[in-house]
Amino acid sequence: MKRKGTGPDGLVIVDKPEGITSHGVVARMRRLAGTRKVGHAGTLDPMATGVLVIGVERATRLLGHLMLTAKTYEATIRLGQSTITDDREGEVTASTPATGVTREAVDTEIARLTGEIMQVPSKVSAIKIDGKRSYHRVREGEDFEIPARPTTVHSFTVHGQRAATAEDGTAVLDLDVTVECSSGTYIRALARDLGAALGVGGHLTALRRTRVGPYEVAGAHTLEQLEEQLTVLPIAEAAAAAFPRWDLDEQDARKLATGARLKAPGLDAGGPIAAFGPDGTFLALVEEQDGQARPVAVFVG
């Protein structure tokens, strides 16, 4: 285990277990890496498992850009019950037997929740309303509304379904689904909205994030594995995997290291580009703007 001192420099791809917050994982990583400079990209609720991208030292500056990438989730939606939290951890607020729900109706409503949609996040989300976390407002008994916001659901597919009986005796229908979506999409809200559209209510009973950008759960490490050996993806490899690559000659590399703008590479990336020096050193993230490469985060110099 690494002791107190200068931490490694890169990303740790964690397979988060159930029952721990994202902040709890960050606290564990601070101890393992021996540094306070640790952050995460994209919060996972305690109930959720799967890919949580942790940045250590300079790599924390990549996290805000990684949060903008697409994500993939495996989830189970229970139709027939609504809960106050839109997931299984909240109190059931309404029960309506789902025996009359057909697969055709499910597919029709899922199609309406696919593509560019307006979504109202769950009130127990970490979203800030007037500078205050929504879930704090709920705990304090506040009555408030969260405005709908645009998000993109690239795909929303059902790959399994089964009838079940809830604890209160309600006949429910459990759907196993895969969702690929943009950052800022709430899977609990999809479950809630699907159930509402079908007239029986719905909530999430399981959630696992299997991908964040290029980082998949197959390459993630459990906390137990990281306790045995802290596995860090070096910052250069992390940047090359997540962003289009731009290789510079020595002269342009020196200019960029000082924050100077260069002629844009014309990659038409639509987002950050990772710039590398001739020796493979990761120099900066840049964005193409008016024919120039504008540095948005410089990692050398």
TrEMBL record:
SUPFAM superfamilies hit by this protein: Pseudouridine synthase, PUA domain-like
Reaction catalyzed: uridine(55) in tRNA = pseudouridine(55) in tRNA
Residue ranges of every copy of the tRNA pseudouridine synthase II TruB subfamily 2 C-terminal domain listed in the record: 243-299
Domain tRNA pseudouridylate synthase B C-terminal: 188-230
EC assignment: 5.4.99.25
InterPro entries: PsdUridine_synth_cat_dom_sf (IPR020103), PsdUridine_synth_N (IPR002501), PUA-like_sf (IPR015947), PUA_sf (IPR036974), tRNA_psdUridine_synth_fam2_C (IPR015225), tRNA_psdUridine_synth_TruB (IPR014780), TruB_C (IPR032819)
CDD domains: PseudoU_synth_EcTruB
Alphabetic keyword roster: Isomerase, tRNA processing
Molecular function via GO: RNA binding; tRNA pseudouridine(55) synthase activity
Database matches in Pfam families: TruB_C (PF09142), TruB_C_2 (PF16198), TruB_N (PF01509)
Catalytic residues identified in the record: D45 (nucleophile)
Start and end residues of each Pseudouridine synthase II N-terminal domain: 30-187
Example GO biological process: tRNA pseudouridine synthesis
Job description of the protein: Responsible for synthesis of pseudouridine from uracil-55 in the psi GC loop of transfer RNAs.
UniProt cross-references to HAMAP family, sorted A to Z: TruB_bact (MF_01080)
NCBIfam families linked to this entry: TruB
PANTHER family to which the protein is assigned, alphabetical: PSEUDOURIDYLATE SYNTHASE TRUB1, TRNA-PSEUDOURIDINE SYNTHASE
Family (UniProt): Belongs to the pseudouridine synthase TruB family. Type 1 subfamily.
Name of the featured protein: tRNA pseudouridine synthase B
Organism per entry: Streptomyces tateyamensis
Lineage start: Bacteria, Bacillati, Actinomycetota, Actinomycetes, Kitasatosporales
